[in-house]
Structures are given as C-alpha cells and as structure tokens.
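Comment thread on ticket #2218

A.B. wrote:
> Attaching the input chain for the structure job we discussed in standup.
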Amino acid sequence: MDDEPDERGRYGAALLFVRWSQAGDKAAGHAESEPLAWGKTRAEAEERIKVLSLFDVKAALDAAIAARPADW
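C.D. wrote:
> Ran it. Output below, let me know if you need it in another format.
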C-alpha cells in the first residue's frame, strides 16, 4: 500500500511474494508486484486488491519473478 497518493490522488496497492528457503523454515527473499489496484483512499485500494482473481495473482507473481535477477 502506498503511504502517500500519487500525482492523480490515488493510492496504489501491490502484492508482496515471499520466497522461502529450500528447507521452508525461513524467508529467503521476496518479490513485489507493480501496483495492481488503486483507490481514492488506502482502504479503498486495499479492498480492490483483495478481490483479485487467482489468475491475476499468478500473473503478477510470474511478472515479479521475471523481473528479478537470474540468481534469485
């Protein structure tokens, strides 16, 4: 969630994807999506991102992974 609105007065909401260690016992990194939902308030942006379809979330995950360095 953006802390401040953009130049158009909108708050953006993005997804944070955690990469887990091979053992699965600790976080080993993360990737963040581009903003996927916007609202006039932080609460409105949050409500809008909560209703994304699983298809949209998976597409955002794939794009976030593709944007990471090769060794990630």
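A.B. wrote:
> Thanks. Noting for the ticket: Residues 54-66 form the longest helix (13 residues).
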